[in-house]
Design goal:
Blueprint lengths: L2 H12 L4 H11 L5 H20 L13 H5 L3 H13 L14 H21 L26 H8 L8 H12 L6 H24 L3 H5 L6 E2 L4 E5 L5 E5 L5 H14 L11 E4 L2 E4 L2 H15 L5 H16 L2 H8 L8 H16 L2
Antiparallel strand pairs: 1-2, 2-3, 4-5
Length: 356
Amino acid sequence: MKRELLLEKIDQLKEIMPWYVLDYYQSKLSVPYSFTTLYEYLKEYRRFLEWLIDSGISDAGKIADVDLETLENLSKKDMESFVLYLRERPLLNANTTQNGVSQTTINRTLSALSSLFKYLTEEVENTDGEPYFYRNVMKKIATKKKKETLAARAENIKQKLFLGDETMEFLEYIDCEYENKLSKRALSSFKKNKERDLAIVALLLASGVRLSEAVNLDVKDLHMNMMVIDVTRKGGKRDSVNVAGFAKPYLENYLSIRKARYKAEKQDVALFLSEYRGVPNRMDASSIEKMVGKYSQDFKIRVTPHKLRHTLATRLYDATKSQVLVSHQLGHASTQVTDLYTHIVNDEQKNALDKL
């Protein structure tokens, strides 16, 4: 979603929210949470507050009038009823007879509500320096994790990784072969953005940064002499991330055409730009997702930018056998998350042995 449209939709949601949700929103801007995350959270709050009214728990006429006392006095049974509503409600898609949202979606909803309730009961201060209320019902609601071993997860994603020589082969395919099957109109668009697209794909493959971290990069955050980028991690923490050397020529090529190609002025600080009707804008996450999906599908299999992050992590672990180095590269607080990559590499080793 374009940044301008995203901010417009956020403003529309803010207009109907209770004052304490607006307090929460303002607080999280300083963390900072990404606008995409805040937009998704606001949608979850709208759904929850509408349910409170529809179920009769709140007698408010509109969601802006749902008071704090209602949230403070919610019971565990109330929240379990909300989860049951999510699990059983008809889907909006008229082409399916399936009811209920997925467990992943329910977990995401509960995560958003947990963030709001934690703010209201622990983080915010009223005029007396106290939180708005103390009873946090969300602490009594457990999320149900998807039952899947790391080995099973590794098996599911390993076919969507560009390991070994495929990393460079993917970049070379975009650079040299992709344009051969394009129409004249598509070719014109591809040639305009070729250097930029290659720079983005190379950076994702060479650093393992999250999509949001790449989107938010400014020119000043890229240090070509050291091949390091400064990023804002989850929770607003700043971090310096090493970038593999193979990305350097792609980044240099893009920087050489960035100003002229995208009509960038001094105030256009974003590293990756798009240009529409002569106006440069920061390239948004959905555009990068579509771009990566388009190239990868034509090359091998459609993947997301997050799979390119998995690719870097797997290759780095394969080269170093160090979960600590991988966790530092990815910006994880512990090595637990990186256990996945040991299973993927073990599978790769087994496949290699089977060929002997």
